[in-house]
Predict the structure.
Amino acid sequence: MTSALPQAGLLASERPLAEAYDLALVDLDGVARKGHLAIPHAAESLTAAATGGLTAIYVTNNASATPEAVAEQLTGLGFIANASSVMTSAQACAQLLAKELAPGSPVLVVGAEALREAVAEQGLSVVASADERPAAVAQGFSPDLTWAHLAEAAYAVEQGARYFASNLDLSLPTARGYAPGNGALVGAVVNATGVGPVSAGKPNPEMYLLAVGRARATRPLVIGDRLDTDLGGARAAGLPGLHVFTGVSSARDAVLAEPHYRPSFLGADLRVLHEPHPLPWQADGGWWLCGPAKARVTGGRLELAGAPSGLDTVRAACMAVWAAADGGVAVDPTSIPEFEV
């Protein structure tokens, strides 16, 4: 399960992805929802996929809500979900702590009640002060964190407590835009102590592997909107990843992606679960072809035959730029346009 994918490029699927895979590891923010709103086409696409046998587990770096609360919100937005179909970074962080610490060890939890509950469920003792000499600090996002909470974490780390974080996302999407994420708040403790945490969240593959084990899946597919976390985590776990352009990373970002962040499949939104995914092929003149789309790199610049629109154009551009970059060609990023898909 942790072996590398056969290539750091796109994959082909003659069948719709909803038929080719048995488990969808779905990112929450930016794929299923944005803030308290559902992403267009997400709920109906996953519901239709479920009728064909594609189980969904929502794997999120968000550590501020319990699985029960996440499932309740998803159900209210039209998704099929329950607590067992949610895997949070709070759960992953707590399980990582349980692997590293003796049962009953004191842990200073800096974050939401969901993280405190997850740590306690693993048989560890939750404390609130560095004066209680915790063996570890566990930090997760909460909108209610204050300077005093961050200072308490810094004091404990300075005293030798091991430092863990639910995730290191610098930003998180809300209905009003992007706000500082847990990684930004972790930065305050890191800057104060000079100590970086062990992260349980994506792109660490731990959550994906835990979810696959829970579902006993044999053909899992990661679905995400962020290259640096969702798709990077897919590569780290050796799993194929579908990058949808409904959140942070754009189609242009995919074309520019480093090998360890590259997706296996591309889509404007989750409706692509019900479509086949053709693989571009290279023709004479260095052109990469996908349907009617053509792309190549000449003189270190991306060249497209036609307007930068359509999913096939993005696929062709990805393969052209990735092949050039992997061959040692420095591709000028200014030659890569924003794509309409």
About this structure: The radius of gyration is 21 Å. The chain has a mean pLDDT of 95. The chain has eleven helices and 19 strands. The first helix runs from residue 17 to 20.
